[in-house]
Amino acid sequence: MAISETPHVAATGAFYAVIVCWWIFGLTFWLRKNPPRAREAKRDRTSLLGLLLQAVGYFIVWFYPLQRGRFSPGTYGLPAMEWGLAVLTVVIAVVSVWLVNSAARRLGKQWALAARLVEGHTLIQDGPYRFVRNPIYTGMFGMLLATGLAAGRWIPLLVAIVFFSAGTYVRIHVEERLLRQAFGAEFEKYARKVPALIPGIY
Where are the domains of the chain? Predict the structure, then answer.
């Protein structure tokens, strides 16, 4: 294999690996067994605004998904850097899928698109919730980041991150307001110990 082909192989491999992760990401929800329905105790549909902003972020990063560019003009021609970025992209995607899958299974009947509490709602602090308070959103952000990196479109990725971050902030704020109302000091203790989204950042 010619050295000049190496960056192309790395980038293409990462791109299709991310596509596979997206399929697994989707199957997490499509093939998910419906848990026993739980009666809602409280719901706040304001979080749907956050979902819309997250969707805009995904749309931006997916707008030209099959017309990928180089990872970065600064890495082109440097095989080690291209492979390093390719591996990082795939690792982000794989870890993100694991987070989403594990968190969705752990939530069970408590999972929903709109922020809500159900009768008998519990404050989950184990599984992926040991690392971040909102592992599904962390995984969703990871998939956004991995997709943007794999597509090699840096400016759209930065714009997508702005929209996605705004939407995620709205959803976390609304959902955790409900949890604070329901669990009080127990939630505050958990929030002091575990970051909301990304360890060391937020």
Answer: 3-193
Asked whether the beta carbons of 134 and 201 are under 8 A apart, the reply is no
Cβ–Cβ < 8 Å for 129, 103 = yes
Reduced to 3 states (helix: H, G, I; strand: E, B; else coil), residue 26 is helix
Contact partners, residue 7, CB within 8 Å, separation at least 6: 70, 71, 75, 76, 77, 78, 79, 82
Q: What is the amino acid identity at position 6? A: T
pTM over 0.70: yes
Look at the block and give the residue holding tokens 């399929």: 23
Q: Which CATH topology does 3-193 take? A: Four Helix Bundle (Hemerythrin (Met), subunit A) (1.20.120)
Residuewise pLDDT in 10s, the chain (202 residues): 444 455 578 888 898 999 999 999 988 777 766 555 656 667 778 899 999 999 999 999 987 654 555 555 445 556 788 888 899 999 999 999 999 999 988 988 888 877 888 888 899 999 999 999 999 999 999 999 999 998 888 889 999 999 999 999 999 999 999 999 999 999 999 999 999 999 888 8
Helices 135-151 and 154-183 sit at what angle, rounded to 10 degrees?
180
